[in-house]
Design goal:
single chain; mainly alpha
Length: 191
């Protein structure tokens, strides 16, 4: 009744609906392999704050990578390699999934970028200093910077395709890394 499209009927009782089928967004191919991966096995389908669930999954990945290390003063080579692979592989996965979903540049359901960028942020913290408080701080800071988008995150968010989807979260990860290092240096965090 209040639609901006003019109906081709004379009486309002003849209008079957306010929504024309051409007004509806195309159906998302949820079972497409790229969509399944980009949404981290449908984690991104959370009804509210899917990025928060993606970042939580990133914390789980970072904890598993930390446990695989030997508590060294620096990140292990396998940890660096896996974090790099998650980022590099995520660029085409997110780009293809966004095109197939047909929901604009960076659909909210795509959470691979959050999942992959949290472990990257934690590479700045030696494994021996990764306490529960560090993981909680990393999670909260990542959500803050991913939502707030300080320079250059907002500019990176404007890039197109999978690179743009991943880049703003990597910018947020850089801010997280800087803050974590500062908090550890100030002896607010760390062991």
């Amino acid at each position: 009744f209040f639609s901006s499209r003019r109906r081709h009927t004379r009486y309002w009782r003849d209008w079957s609906s306010d929504v024309c089928s051409s007004d509806l967004a195309p159906a998302v191919p949820w079972h497409d392999p790229f969509v399944v991966l980009a949404t981290c096995w449908w984690t991104g389908r959370a009804p509210v704050a899917p990025g928060t669930f993606g970042a939580a999954l990133g914390i789980v990945v970072a904890i598993l990578l930390s446990l695989a290390g030997r508590g060294e003063a620096a990140p292990s080579l396998p940890e660096i390699g896996i974090a790099l692979v998650l980022v590099v592989v995520g660029i085409p996965i997110c780009g293809i999934a966004a095109r197939r979903m047909g929901r604009g540049g960076d659909p909210g359901a795509i959470v691979w970028d959050e999942m992959a960028s949290v472990p990257v942020a934690l590479l700045a913290v030696p494994q021996s200093q990764r306490t529960a408080a560090v993981f909680v701080a990393a999670f909260l800071l990542h959500r803050l910077f991913d939502i707030w988008k300080p320079f250059p995150c907002r500019q990176l968010d404007r890039l197109h395709g999978g690179f743009g989807i991943m880049a703003d979260d990597l910018g947020a990860a850089a801010w997280v890394a800087i803050c974590l290092r500062a908090l550890i240096a100030a002896r607010i965090l760390g062991g």
